[in-house]
Amino acid sequence: MKTHWVNITKGDKESFFIIYDTLYRSLFQYGMVIAKNREVVKEAIHILFYELWEKHERLPVDISDPKYYLFVWLKRIIFRQLKAQEICFESLLEEPYEESVETQKIRIEEMMERERHIHAAMARLTKKNATILN
Q1: C-alpha of 90 from chain center
Q2: Segment 81-122, tens digit of pLDDT
Q3: Radius of gyration of the chain, Cα coordinates, nearest whole angstrom
Q4: The dihedral of CA 49, 55, 57, 62: what is its sign?
Q5: What single-letter DSSP state applies at residue 56?
Q6: Per-residue pLDDT reduced to its tens digit, 19-31
Q7: Whole-prediction pTM
Q8: Under 8 Å CB-to-CB from 110, ≥6 apart: which residues?
Q9: Cα–Cα dist 38/20, whole Å
Q10: Nearest CA-CA partner of 5 in 15, 13, 48, 58
Q11: In sequence order, which residues have a C-beta less than 8 Å from that of residue 122 and are 6 or more positions away?
């Protein structure tokens, strides 16, 4: 594992894919313990490996265990994602959820008015045109 890690820092794609294939299942299981949401964990793993490749030239080479380094990295990504979801959820709670009664009445009146217009227009149709529509 350490050899593949050093090779990744040098830009070796084969080592990158070997680490991906070797650790994906373990990372996924670990992520599920933290997030308990398959989609969040899958996305976090993809972000992890995207960032890993994007930063491969700046990665520390002298890591004692790359597996645990990636586990910690994944945990931080998951926490970042959960925090972002929490912020989105909180902003939804701040917005009014229901329309006011006045807005609902206006919407109903507009729908009734459209329906009256449609019935009036259909009444003006010739029998032939009305048959085509039905």
Answers
A1: 17
A2: 888 777 555 555 555 556 677 777 787 788 888 888 887 877
A3: 29
A4: negative
A5: G
A6: 999 999 999 999 9
A7: 0.62
A8: none
A9: 18
A10: 15
A11: 130, 133
Neighbours of 55 (CB within 10 A): 10
Decide: residue 73, CB within 10 A, 0-12 exposed, 13-18 middle, 19+ buried: middle
Q: Locate 16 and state its tokens.
A: 């990158």
DSSP codes, 57-69: GGS-S--S-HHHH
Cα separation, 71 vs 48, in Å, equals: 10
CA distance 107 to 109: 5
Token pair of 118 as six digits: 């449609």
43 neighbors 81 (Cβ within 8 angstroms): yes
**Nearest Cα to Cα of residue 71 among 8, 37, 38, 25:** 25
CA–CA gap between residue 6 and residue 59 (Å, rounded): 9
CB 68 within 8 A of CB 31: no
Contacts of 67 (CB under 8 A, 6+ apart): 1, 23, 26
